[in-house]
Amino acid sequence: ETEFNGITKNMRRMQLIFKYVIEHYKEKITLSDAANVISMSTTAFCSFFKRETGKTFTNFINEYRIEAVCTLLRNFPDKDINEIAWQCGFTDIPYFNRYFKKMKQMTPKQWRTELERWLELVSTTIRKSLIWQIDEASSEAIREAMLELKHLGEK
Predict the structure, then answer these.
(1) Is 1's pLDDT higher than 60?
(2) Helix, strand, coil percentages in the chain from 3-state DSSP, rounded to 5
(3) 90: buried, middle or exposed (CB in 10 Å: 19+, 13-18, 0-12)?
């Protein structure tokens, strides 16, 4: 396999495919579309992609889309889950729900709820930590002030 500036031909092909998916994941992407990006037949493309990644192209796209859904679920907690799924390229909502559950071991709604619980726990933990740090700082400041007063009294 020849290299050009340290990048093999297959690495370059994968870069082109990843770039294509990133730019088009919200749209319908066919195997033919992806194969055309790197000038391969669909059969050769499927073999190539599976050999390079260990997964099918369809699974790769779905996993990418699920991660995009999770990002939007996190960033837009009030937005409708189905709307987010559509926005990320899923046109079949029951399929989306099955695939999400298969990948995350919970439904999108459960995932969002777990995320909210986790964020609340983190928020509470951070608040407690900050309060403890403030208390520690206050205690230290009081000790220093008392020492300073003691020193002033000795003079």
Answers:
(1) no
(2) 75, 5, 20
(3) buried
